Amino acid sequence: MRFLSRRLVMPNDLNFAGSLFGGRILEWIDEEAYIYAACQLEAKSLVTKHIGAITFEASAFQGDVVEFGLATKNVGTTSLTVTCIVRNKRTKDSICVADDIVFVHIDSETRKPQPHGKTKEELDNLKLETL
User: Fold this and answer.
1) Of 35, 67, 80, 82, which has the fewest CB atoms closer than 10 Å, so is most exposed?
2) By three-state DSSP, how is residue 90 classified?
3) Residue 85 contacts residue 97 (beta carbons within 8 Å)
């Protein structure tokens, strides 16, 4: 799994208890996973169809830097399934795991699912080339 981006936890990201708000981290996960999927498929016409199990494992606090690890789990004809791990940059402790984030490639005019033309093998080879 590659950790591709980072965010600084700011005061407006906190809940009433002073830790990172769960809704904020889910917003970040959806955005980061979309960017990852769009880069993998070389397409921008993607929609989030499903986010599976989400497990909160630790808290993050103001001033913490969190990083997002993303990996391709499955490739369908019109879809891409991604896993995301969010961890504390300094301690490497896992903060949240979001599994089975499914994006569907759509036609930008009809908004209907459209084949993206990529295979898991092709994306795995792409990953090896960029390491």
Assistant:
1) 35
2) coil
3) yes
Which CATH architecture does the domain made up of 2-125 adopt?
Roll (3.10)
Token pair for 105: 């490639």
> How far is CA 112 from its chain centroid?
23
Q: What is the pLDDT along the chain (131 residues), one digit of tens a residue?
A: 889 899 999 999 999 999 999 999 999 999 999 999 999 999 989 999 999 999 999 999 999 999 999 999 999 999 999 999 999 999 999 999 999 999 999 998 999 999 999 998 888 887 655 54
Three-state DSSP state, 1: coil
Question: Domain map of the chain by residue range?
Answer: 2-125
Nearest-5° Cα angle at 61, 23 to 10 = 70
pTM of the model: 0.91
Structure tokens at 16: 């009433």
Residue type at 22 in one-letter notation: G
Closest CA to 44 of 102, 104, 4: 104
